[in-house]
Specification:
CATH topology: Rossmann fold
Shape: globular
CATH superfamily: P-loop containing nucleotide triphosphate hydrolases
Helix content: 25-40%
Strand order of the largest sheet: 3-2-4-1-5-6-7
CATH class: Alpha Beta
Structural class: alpha/beta
Largest sheet: 7 strands, parallel
Number of domains: 1
Order of helices and strands: EHEHEHHEHEHEHEH
């Protein structure tokens, strides 16, 4: 089993759409894909969450969501506020292990690397499973600092960063975005391995799966 964690430099940087694009690219390469979302927040019972969006965009149906909380907060805070138990590292790792028959298991976090998913962070989970982390970054001002902080945390923890992906690349990038795309590898020491066009999350499945493999650097694979 190959596991790839997907985190962001912050919230709302495009993690779900990037996760879907990774799944689509792997499917196009003939691989089987599973997706885990340990904790979903801001969504009520029966409402579509991030996994439903990934399924809509890609057709992937092998998915696991371990907990959901109605308030749009960090998962540990949301769990406390609604009286649900915190997710544990061991149960989350076991759920991911249950997807071992897939060629690629994608695990989408919540917010950034050190947001607590329960009694642990995505960084703790990546260490536990000895798996790499893909970092989804914003295009505009602030992304250099946020990206370098995150990649330094990964390096300090001994977790490999599989690459940077710009989660929403504007149709008409401004000067900051153009400079950031050049500077991100310089300040982080990690290659930009892809960028997703702004608005791609609103596309239909046929258009999305046809285009997604081309958003990543030729020769780069989430499978390593």
């Amino acid at each position: 089993m190959s596991v790839l964690f997907v985190t962001g430099t912050s919230t709302e940087v495009g993690k779900t759409v990037v996760t879907a694009a990774l799944a689509a690219a792997a499917l196009a390469d003939g691989r089987t894909v599973a997706v885990c979302k340990p904790g979903q927040t801001g969504v009520g019972p029966g409402e579509p969450g991030d996994l439903a969006e990934i399924e809509r965009l890609t057709g992937v149906t092998r998915t696991i969501e371990l907990a959901r909380y109605p308030e749009p907060l960090a998962p540990d805070t949301a769990a406390r506020r609604c009286g649900q138990p915190q997710l544990t590292l061991s149960e989350t790792a076991a759920a991911i292990d249950s997807l071992a028959d897939a060629d690629l298991t994608l695990v989408e976090g919540a917010g950034g690397l050190l947001v607590r998913l329960g009694e642990f962070t995505l960084l703790d989970l990546a260490q536990q499973l000895d798996a790499p982390v893909l970092l989804v970054a914003a295009a505009g001002l602030g992304t250099l600092n946020h990206s370098e902080l995150t990649t330094r945390a990964l390096s300090s923890a001994g977790v490999r960063c599989a690459g940077l992906v710009i989660g929403s690349w504007p149709a008409e990038p401004d000067l900051a975005a153009e400079c950031n795309r050049t500077d991100l590898p310089r300040v982080t020491g990690v290659d930009v391995v892809g960028s997703v066009p702004a608005g791609a999350g609103g596309w239909d499945r046929d258009r999305f799966v046809a285009a997604a493999p081309g958003w990543f650097t030729p020769g780069w694979s989430p499978l390593g």
